[in-house]
């Protein structure tokens, strides 16, 4: 039931004093760790805007429904003015209905002794089902972010399983890697993280990804300079920096005995907010997108992480960046892994 303007707090009133219609946002794997760090930020307006009412749809598997009930209670107890409704469910026809945004966090995690192809097979089944549900129940304008790993290939399977939704509406999360890379450079230069811009994550959200700072800028004492000039340590930038970003998720798990839920949730918020409101002028961010028609020689029909600018909820790859031989080799290596993943997944999809 929608409320009258008189009964709503000012935060509900959008521009020109009109009441904003609530948007439906789905989070899958909603009883899990990442969702627990994510849902509060979405519900209080950090992602879709401070005047945008939200209907949160929380999807998980049947054994997790009792946990989900606890999450719903906590969201209610936060007394958030923008949160219009919370819908917990284990049914795709409820979860995917009339969505404006879908954040697909849930996936089959890799278990001890599981080979990568086994992981791919399990996730193909999940994301084929979710893609079909998007196709059948969601708005054709829905923006879909895939977080669950292997995120790039899961995203490709979901997109292929929802043929009437534009491929451009699907993306996978490499913003966490992007944020990790920015932070590493900032710490090295002794500046705040927001003084670093235009790092790039190329390729797969895996240990083959290529964190590239050849086009990054660092603001040091009010003066903007190239990252290589600011860091003054080429060996580090071409060695330990890259491996640190590539292996960061594993390092967090080793230290915490749990995955990087807080930083992943922050990256999801950054990614979706940039889709909704656009990137800053003169800046680009990294996200895994459909590789059709790119100017960097990356094979088509992949979800590959590129530098993008976003405006009016549409992304555009930053074309024309100079690519040296060092970068080319790294970009091609991560593309080769994605081609192999895609071909394995497509074989399972056609079964």
Automatic annotation (TrEMBL):
Residues reported in the UniProt entry to bind substrate: 110, 116, 149, 180
PROSITE patterns linked to this entry: MDH
EC number: 1.1.1.37
Gene Ontology biological process: malate metabolic process; tricarboxylic acid cycle
MF annotations from Gene Ontology: L-malate dehydrogenase (NAD+) activity
Swiss-Prot/TrEMBL catalytic activity: (S)-2-hydroxyglutarate + NAD(+) = 2-oxoglutarate + NADH + H(+); (S)-malate + NAD(+) = oxaloacetate + NADH + H(+)
Domain Lactate/malate dehydrogenase C-terminal intervals: 174-348
Main EC class the enzyme belongs to: oxidoreductase
Keyword terms of this UniProt record: NAD, Oxidoreductase, Tricarboxylic acid cycle
Pfam families: Ldh_1_C, Ldh_1_N
Residue stretches making up the Lactate/malate dehydrogenase N-terminal domain: 24-170
Active-site annotation: 205 (proton acceptor)
UniProt-listed InterPro entries: L-lactate/malate_DH (IPR001557), Lactate/malate_DH_C (IPR022383), Lactate/malate_DH_N (IPR001236), Lactate_DH/Glyco_Ohase_4_C (IPR015955), Malate_DH_AS (IPR001252), Malate_DH_NAD-dep_euk (IPR011274), Malate_DH_type2 (IPR010945), NAD(P)-bd_dom_sf (IPR036291)
SUPFAM superfamilies the record matches: LDH C-terminal domain-like, NAD(P)-binding Rossmann-fold domains
Binding-site residues for NAD(+), renumbered to this chain: 60, 123, 147-149
Functional note: Catalyzes the reduction of aromatic alpha-keto acids in the presence of NADH. Plays essential roles in the malate-aspartate shuttle and the tricarboxylic acid cycle, important in mitochondrial NADH supply for oxidative phosphorylation. Catalyzes the reduction of 2-oxoglutarate to 2-hydroxyglutarate, leading to elevated reactive oxygen species (ROS).
Family per similarity comment: Belongs to the LDH/MDH superfamily. MDH type 2 family.
Full protein name: Malate dehydrogenase
């Amino acid at each position: 039931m929608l409320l009258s303007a008189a009964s709503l707090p000012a935060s509900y009133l959008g521009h020109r004093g009109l009441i904003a219609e609530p948007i439906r946002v789905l989070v899958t794997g909603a009883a899990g760790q990442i969702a627990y760090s994510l849902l509060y930020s979405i519900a209080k307006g950090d992602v879709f805007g401070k005047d945008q009412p939200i209907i949160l749809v929380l999807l998980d598997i049947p054994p997790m429904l009792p946990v989900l009930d606890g999450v719903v209670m906590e969201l209610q107890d936060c007394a958030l003015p923008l949160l219009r409704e919370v819908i917990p469910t284990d049914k795709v026809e409820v979860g995917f209905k009339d969505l404006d945004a879908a954040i697909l966090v849930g996936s089959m995690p890799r278990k001890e002794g599981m080979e990568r192809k086994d992981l791919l097979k399990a996730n193909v089944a999940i994301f084929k089902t979710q893609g079909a549900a998007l196709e059948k129940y969601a708005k054709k304008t829905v923006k879909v972010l895939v977080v669950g790993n292997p995120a790039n290939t899961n995203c490709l399977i979901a997109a292929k399983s929802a043929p009437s939704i534009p491929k451009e509406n699907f993306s996978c999360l490499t913003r966490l890697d992007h944020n990790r890379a920015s932070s590493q450079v900032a710490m090295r230069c002794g500046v705040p993280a927001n003084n670093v811009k235009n790092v790039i994550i190329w390729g797969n959200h895996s240990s083959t990804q290529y964190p590239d700072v050849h086009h990054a800028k660092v603001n040091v004492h009010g003066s903007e300079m190239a990252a290589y000039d600011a860091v003054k340590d080429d060996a580090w930038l071409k060695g330990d920096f890259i491996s640190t970003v590539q292996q960061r998720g594993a390092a967090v798990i080793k230290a915490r005995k749990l995955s990087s839920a807080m930083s992943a949730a922050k990256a999801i918020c950054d990614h979706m907010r940039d889709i909704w409101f656009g990137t800053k002028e003169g800046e680009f961010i990294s996200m895994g997108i459909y590789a059709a028609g790119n100017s960097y020689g990356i094979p088509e029909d992949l979800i590959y992480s590129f530098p993008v600018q976003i405006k009016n909820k549409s992304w555009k790859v930053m074309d024309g960046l100079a690519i040296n031989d060092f970068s080319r080799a790294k970009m091609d290596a991560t593309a080769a892994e994605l081609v192999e993943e895609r071909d394995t997944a497509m074989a399972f999809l056609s079964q």
